[in-house]
Amino acid sequence: MLKTRQFLTLAQMTAVEAIRQPICLLLAISGIILTGITPLVVIYKFGEDGKLARDSGLAFHLIFGLIIAAYSASTSLAKELRTGTASSILSKPVSRNTLFLAKFTGITSVIILFSITAIAATMLSERIDQKFIFTNTMSGYFTDWHTGILLLAAPFVALLLAGIINYITRRPFESFAFMLLVTCVLGAFVISGFFDRIGHLAPLDYQVDWRLLPAGLLITAALIVITAIATTISTRFNTVLTITSCMAILMIGLVADYVLGHNANSSYLTSGIYKLIPNWQNFWVSDALTGGGHIPWNYVATTFIYAATYTAGVLCLGILSFKHKEVT
Amino acid sequence: MKSLQPTPTPIVQINTLTKIFRDFWHRPKARAVNNLSLNIYPGEIFGLLGPNGSGKSTTIKILLGLLHPSSGTVTVLGSKPQNVITKNEIGYLPEESHLYKHLTARESLDFYGKLFDINKEERRKRTDELLDMVGLTHAADRMIGEFSKGMARRIGLAQALINDPKLIILDEPTSGLDPIGCRQVKDLIIALAKRGKTILLSSHLLADVEDVCDQVTILFNGSIRASGSVTQLLEKRDSIRLTIPTLSPEKLKEVLNVIRKKIGSEPEIDHPSLNLEQFFLQVVAKANETEAENMSGAASDTKVAAFLKTENQQPKINN
Ligand SMILES: Nc1ncnc2c1ncn2[C@@H]1O[C@H](COP(=O)(O)OP(=O)(O)OP(=O)(O)O)[C@@H](O)[C@H]1O
Ligand SMILES: [Mg+2]
Q1: Nearest CA to ligand 1 atom 4
Q2: Is the CB of B56 within 6 Å of ligand 1?
Q3: CA-CA distance, B99 to B142, in Å (whole number)?
Q4: How many Å lie between the alpha carbon of A182 and the closest alpha carbon of chain B?
Q5: Which residue of A59, A218, A225, A293 has the lowest C-beta tally within 10 Å?
Q6: Cα distance between residue B234 and residue B230, in whole Å
Q7: pLDDT > 90 fraction of chain A, expressed in percent and rounded
Q8: What is the ipTM of this complex?
Q9: What phi, psi does B261 have (nearest 5°)?
Q10: Which among B99, B114, B163 has the least Cβ separation from residue A9?
Q11: How distant is the Cα of B123 from the closest Cα of chain A, in angstroms?
Q12: Distance, C-alpha A321 to centroid of its chain
C-alpha cells in the first residue's frame, strides 16, 4: 500500500519533471507539425495512396520519440543524483528499487502520451495525403485540406491555451503545453470523424487507415525499450555518456541484421552480440503496409513479448547497478 | 562499585569507520573518514564540528546508507543504515536544500509526506503546522524555485520533520539563515531535544554548536581530534571572572589593591561586551516591537509544530 503510493508519487514527479523540459515540448511539437505538413507540401502524385504520409509519420514518431526517450531517461535519474533530490528521497523509507522503477515508469508514461499523439497525427496525416477520389460529381486526386488545417492548428491552440493558463495561474508553461498538445491532437482526431474528405458532414465516419495503429504500437514498444536502456545506463554514467551509448546501441541494432544476421551462427561473439542488441527491424513494419498489406496481430503480440522480455532484463541490470550506487 | 543506572543503548553506533572515495578505476581519491568511532545516546544533541572537508557530511551520508563504508561498522536505531524501515524514524536535512523547484512550499511538504505512511488529513495538518513553525505560512503557495536560500533552507528543515522522527540529522542547519533564523533553529533544536528527540548536527560555526550541543566531537581530516561534553571541553578550571558595575577610578583602585594583595599578581580588567549575535538580536527585537505588522521576509516565534510528539508518547520501534 505504502509502496504503491511511494511508487506512484515518484513516477508522477518524474513524468512532470520530464515534460517540464522545454526540449521535450519542442521535440513533440516539431514531430507533430512535420507529420502534419509533409502530405501538404510534398507532391507525390504517382505513388501509392498515402504511402508518403504513412512512412514519414511513422518515421517522425520513431525519431522524435527516440530523442525524447533517450534525453528524458538519461537526464531524469542523473539530474536527481546530481542535484541531490535523490539523496533526499533515499533518506526517506524509499527503497532504491522503488525509486529506479518509478523513474522508468514516469518516463514511459511520457513516451506513451507522446506516442498516442504521434499515432493520431500519423493517421490524420495519412488521411490528408492525396488520394484518388471518385464520386458522382467529381473525380481526381484530392488533398484533404480541412484535416490538414485541423491537425496543424492543434499545436498552436495548445500553446495559446498553455500561455493563457500560465498567465492566470502562474504554473509552469511547458508541462501544460505538453498535456494540451496531447489533448488538442486527440481532439482534432475526434473532430475529423465528423466530416469526410471533401468537407461534408459525416458523423462518426473515421476515414483513417487503422493499419497504422499496430504499426504505431510497435514503434511505441521500441521507444519503451530504449527508455529502459537509457534509465539503466544513467545509473552509472552521466548524461552525455548515456546518450552516446544509447545512440551506439541504436546504430548497432539497426545494422545488426545486415552485418551480423547472415553470419550470426559463425562465431559465439557475433551470435552473442546479435542476441544482446535489440533488433530494431522488428519494430519497423512500414514496408509491410505497402501494397495493402496487413500486420497480423499475433506478430504484434510476439514483438510485444520480445520487447517486454528485453525491457525486464535491462531493468534487472539497472536495479542491480543502482543497488550499490553511492548517492551524494 | 556498580552504577545503579543501566547505560542506555546508543541510537547511533559508529565503530572504526573508514571511508575512502575511489575513482572509476578504483584508485583512491580521498580519505574522507579515518578510523572514526563514536556513540550517540537517546536524547542527546550531538555536535559534529570540523573545518571544511573534514568528513562531517560523509559520515552523515554513511549513517543514512547513501554512501558505503570502506571499512568499519555502523548501526543506526539498531539496524544497518541501508535498512529502509528504520528511515521511518529518521529526519534528514541535507547540506544543501534539495527540493523540486517547480513545487510550492506546501506541495513539497506534501510530496515528502507521501513517501511515509501518513494519511492525507494528517499530512495537511502537519504541513500547516510545519509551515507555521518555520515562519513561511505566507509563502506556502509560492514556488520553491523563487525562494531565497534561507527560505528554501527552512522548507528543508520542515521536510526533515514531516515524519515526526526520533533521530534528527541536520547537516549545517544554520547555513544560509539570517541571525534570527539561526537563533530560531537553535531554539527549535533545543525544544526538540526537550521532547526527547535525538539530534545529530554538523557545523563549522562554533557558536551553533556551543549554544545547543550536549556532546561535541571535533573532526579534522576524517578523524576525531577532541570529544566530550561542551562544558567539559570549554571550562578553564584555573581562573574565574567577576562582573561588577562600573566604578569611579578611586574605588576601582581600592578594589584592585585588595585583589592584588590576596592573589599576589595583576588581575585582568576589561569591559564585558555583548557578542555581535546578542547585539543583533537586541536590535531586531526592538525593531520588531514597532513594526511587527508589515513583515515581508520569514518570521516566526519559536514554536514547535504540535504533532511532533514527546518521546514517552512515541511508539517504541521494534528492531
Ligand atoms: N563524492 C566525492 N568524491 C570524492 N571525494 C569526496 C566526495 N565527497 C567528499 N569527498 C571528499 O571527502 C572529504 C570530506 O568531505 P565532506 O563533504 O565530508 O566534508 P565536510 O566536513 O562536510 O565539509 P564542509 O564543511 O565543507 O561541508 C573532502 O576531502 C572531500 O573532497
Ligand atoms: Mg559538509
Answers
A1: B21
A2: yes
A3: 13
A4: 21
A5: A293
A6: 6
A7: 55
A8: 0.85
A9: -60, -45
A10: B114
A11: 14
A12: 26
Q: Residue B93 CB: number of other CB atoms within 10 A? A: 25
Q: Is the per-residue pLDDT at B298 higher than 60?
A: no
What is the second-level CATH architecture of the domain B12-234? Answer: 3-Layer(aba) Sandwich (3.40)
Q: Is there a contact between A84 and B163 if contact means CB atoms under 8 Å apart?
A: no
The x, y and z cell numbers of residue B199, run together, are 539530534
Instruction: Answer with the residue of higher pLDDT: A279 or B64.
Output: B64
The most confident of the ranges A94-108, B131-145, B164-178, B204-218 is A94-108
Residue B274, exposed/middle/buried by CB under 10 A (0-12, 13-18, 19+)?
A: exposed
Give yes or no for a contact between A253 and A95, defined as CB atoms under 8 angstroms apart: no
Interface probe, candidates A16, A17, A88, chain B, greatest B C-beta count within 10 A: A88
Cα separation of the two ends of chain B = 32
- Give pLDDT tens digits for A42-90: 765 555 677 888 889 999 999 999 999 999 998 999 889 888 899 999 9
- Angle of helix A2-19 versus helix A22-41 axis, rounded to 10: 60
pLDDT exceeds 80 at position B106: yes
Determine, for residues A94 and B115 on separate chains, whether the beta-carbon distance falls below 8 Å. Answer: yes
Domain boundaries, chain B: 12-234
CB–CB of A36/A117 below 8 Å? no
| Residue type, position B81, single letter | P
Candidate from B48, B57, B60, B221 with most ligand 1 atoms within 8 A of CB, to mutate = B57
- In terms of Cβ atoms closer than 10 Å to its own Cβ (0-12, 13-18, 19+), residue A269 is exposed
Task: Tell me the C-alpha distance between B105 and B112, whole Å.
Answer: 11
- Orientation of helix A51-83 relative to helix A239-256, angle to 10°: 150
Report which listed range, A68-82, A97-111, B181-195, is most confident: A97-111
Q: Does ligand 1 come within 6 angstroms of the Cβ of B215?
A: no
Q: How far is CA A224 from the centre of its chain?
A: 8
Contact A326 B114 (CB under 8 A): no
Reported confidence tier of residue B1, pLDDT bands at 50, 70, 90: very low
Tell me the C-alpha to C-alpha distance, in Å, between residue B116 and each of A108, A197, A245.
Answer: 25, 55, 36
C-alpha B316/C-alpha B313 separation (Å) is 9
Judging contacts by C-beta atoms under 8 Å, the chain B residues touching residue A94 are 84, 87, 115
Q: Strand order of the sheet with strand B167-171? A: B90-93, B167-171, B198-203, B45-49, B215-220, B223-229
Q: Which of B9, B59, B8, B12 is nearest to B168 (CA)?
A: B12
Collapse the DSSP code of A205 into the 3-class scheme (helix H, G, I; strand E, B; otherwise coil) and give the result.
coil
Please state, rounded to an integer, the average pLDDT across all residues of chain A.
Answer: 87
The one-letter amino acid at A28? A
Angle between helical axes of A239-256 and A212-233 (0-180°, round to 10) = 130
User: Is there a contact between A28 and A155 (Cβ–Cβ < 8 Å)?
Assistant: no
Average pLDDT over residues B214-230: 85
A283-301 average pLDDT score:
85
Q: Which residue from A277, A246, A302, A258 is spatially nearest to A73, judged by alpha carbons?
A: A246
Q: Computed over its alpha carbons, how large is the radius of gyration of chain B? A: 23
Contacts of A93 in chain B (CB under 8 A): 84-85, 87-88, 115-116
